[in-house]
Amino acid sequence: MDSIRIRGGNPLKGRIVIGGAKNAALPLMSAALLTSDPLHLDYIPGLADIATMGELLGVLGCSFSVRKNGGGANIARGTLATPAIKNITAPYDLVRRMRAGILVLGPLLARCGKARVSLPGGCALGPRPVDLHIMGLQKMGARIDLAGGYIVAEAPGGLKGAEIVFPQVTVTGTENLLMAACLARGDTALVGAAREPEVTDLAECLVKMGAEIEGIGTDTLRITGKTELHGATHRIVADRIVTGTYAMAAAMTGGELELIGAHPEHVQAAVDYMRQAGIGITSAGNGILARRGADGIRSVDVTTAPYPGFPTDLQAQAMALMCLGDGSATINETIFENRYMHVPELSRMGADITVNGSIAVVHGVDTLRGAPVMATDLRASVCLVLAGLAAKGDTVISRVYHLDRGYERVEENLAACGAEIERLKEAA
Ligand code: UD1
């Protein structure tokens, strides 16, 4: 397994193009199962999870190709086409690598009346069940059994519209049911739906594909089912988590980064948080400019929440930032049970953090020190990169394959902005 070595201390200065959001691209790719026409997705990010989703869709009969679209980094077009579903089984091997594989369940069932999708299984962030995906599809008339680790779903006469009330906000659950409802008979209401920009992006693309959806961007989506959808061309929304991550990196290193293509309104909660912490965030041309303020980093409390709240996917990075705060900050993780695996690793670098259940208290220190650390999940690994960039000395992060799932060309982007960072390839 590859690792990354960082010699910390260089202020980051420069420009980074923000690519399409992974969490928008994955459901958009599964939407290609809903039509026999091609779907073109611009700004498709070059990430391991995108390749895994492409592989999974390939097993089901959907072709996926990527063409660089000129304009240099991070700009590519993904084209998907599913003339016919060849196979209704999403195998364990692929779904266990990426939980978002569950996103093929709704489209498969809607298009061909049956699906067999591996349960994603346990995950480093806690149990992460899919009961709400199943509940919604059952409400739409599907018969669902769990057998041999697979969700076996059937709707021989097709899915029918229903009113589905989510007792808890679920992003991929909303996306799965939204896609299924587009080809169901009659009207569906999704109440208590996720409002994340990635859900909105999917809904907007589905409308381009001929779907009828009201309430886009709100917590109640009303869908009038159609007998078929058609192809479309769609530009994937910019990645708000990558945006927030690089903005915090600029502040932690005392540098200044222009994040091109970033949508500040999609990271409003994080922008507000960073401003309270003393980070300067201003709009700059087609994006934002992030830099540390003159007074250093202020310690500020934060609680994660569904959109428009502070994203759980930026919690680890905020914790890295708070390690350099001027006092104590309390972090409250309300979305996932087990999302503090970066704490012992940050502690190895000299951070002062205590965890009690969902609450972490971060006491700021003057400096972090480089150390060998291990990445445990996607956002935890990038928080270690941020800590390494700001630390004194060398940090070697092992198991960086997690990073490749969500950050495109991260070493290249950071090195171009002055970081001393290199990938150490595992000897073959
Ligand atoms: C998505 C994102 C992930 C992000 C998360 C929360 C993708 C591909 N991934 O994950 O990066 O961290 O949203 O913003 O978009 N839950 C249930 N039953 C269900 C579904 C979810 O109890 O059927 C619970 C989960 O255990 C969790 C909470 O609901 O505690 C939110 O999970 P959810 O929004 O579904 O996360 P994902 O869609 O998996």
Short description:
The chain is α/β, with parallel strands linked by helices and 428 residues long. It has 14 helices and 24 strands. The strands form 6 sheets. It has a 4-stranded mixed β-sheet, covered by helices on one side. Strands 2-15-17-16 form a 4-stranded mixed β-sheet.
Key words describing this protein structure:
single chain, 428 residues, alpha/beta, UDP-n-acetylglucosamine1-carboxyvinyl-transferase, Chain, 4-stranded mixed β-sheet, binds uridine-diphosphate-N-acetylglucosamine
Structure explained in plain terms:
- By secondary structure, the protein is α/β, with parallel strands linked by helices.
- The chain has two domains: 3-18 and 238-424, UDP-n-acetylglucosamine1-carboxyvinyl-transferase, Chain, CATH 3.65.10.10; 22-235, UDP-n-acetylglucosamine1-carboxyvinyl-transferase, Chain (Alpha-beta prism), CATH 3.65.10.
- It is 30% helix and 26% strand.
- It has helices at residues 22-31, 48-60, 92-95, 105-112, 131-139, 171-182, 197-208, 240-252, 268-276, 315-322, 342-348, 378-390, 401-404, 410-416; strands spanning 3-7, 13-17, 38-42, 63-68, 76-81, 89-90, 114-118, 143-147, 150-154, 163-165, 187-191, 212-214, 220-224, 232-235, 256-260, 279-283, 287-292, 302-303, 328-332, 352-356, 359-363, 372-374, 394-398, 420-424.
- The strands form six sheets. Strands 22-23-1-24 form a four-stranded mixed sheet, with helices on one face. The protein has a four-stranded mixed sheet with strand order 2-15-17-16. The chain has a four-stranded mixed sheet with strand order 4-5-3-14, covered by helices on one side.
- Helix 1 (22-31) packs parallel to helix 2.
- The longest helix is centred in the N-terminal third of the chain and has 13 residues, at 48-60.
- The chain is globular and about 65 Å long.
- The mean pLDDT is 94.
- Bound molecules: uridine-diphosphate-N-acetylglucosamine.
